[in-house]
Amino acid sequence: MKLEFDIASGDFSKAGRASSRIKKMLKQLQVDPKVIKRIVVAIYEAEVNVVAHSVGGKMLAEIDGTGITVIVQDNGPGIEDIEKAMQEGYSTATKAVRNMGFGAGMGLPNINRNTDEFTIESELGVGTVLTFRNNF
Amino acid sequence: MKLSEIIELTNAKVVAGDTEKNHNLLRAFSSDLMSDVLTLDTEHILLITGLANLQLVRTAEMADIEVVLLARNKRATPEMIELANETGLVLLETPYSIYRSGGVLFKNGLAPVY
Known about the structure:
The complex is a heterodimer. Chain A has helices at residues 17-28, 33-53, 82-85, 95-99, 107-113, and strands at residues 2-7, 57-63, 67-74, 117-123, 127-135. Chain A is an alpha+beta fold. In chain A, strands 1-2-3-5-4 form a five-stranded antiparallel sheet, with helices on one face. The longest helix of chain A is centred in the N-terminal third of the chain and has 21 residues, at 33-53. Chain A is globular and about 40 Å long. The two termini of chain A are 15 Å apart. A six-stranded mixed sheet of chain B has the order 1-5-4-3-2-6.
């Protein structure tokens, strides 16, 4: 089962729609609630990241018999220093993002903690791709 | 702690959600930082916050939080109420500060997450 979502830059009112849809679907599939929570937290953080930091992007989720794989791809600007971005507490978020209750430098570490497999690739001026997977 | 007890102790008003459902909260947490809320792996939590926006309701949905108490007269927007009713979140508003809400609930036996 494949799902695709567009994620618009700066539109916080819609951030969480993809995570919400995926959560409902996993509930219907009667996946263990603990597994659902971990993956939806990761997806939600990734969604907020695209809204907060990028010029926009998309999310692809694929559910198979043994787990869920998510690819989150944005169209830039790319992350300058991935190692720093992965450190808890490091953030380049604007004041507006912080006012929304995010931007404390916990997003990527939170994704890493809540997923079984996680890779991040980024190129300045091109964009960032996050791929993560959780097994059921 | 029963939802009715939380409402009474904090002098709260229910603005969204089904209070008839048997909500029994085991622990409470307070934060305005949603990423912090998303690190919790405890169940049946009350979240006490001063952040009143749509992301609060989304965060509660993803973090499996059943009840949110908006402190110090922060008002839930119509969009927040609509989304809370859709996701089944109970939203409460209290005139008490985060500190006072936490204090009174702690004193009456609602345990902290940390």
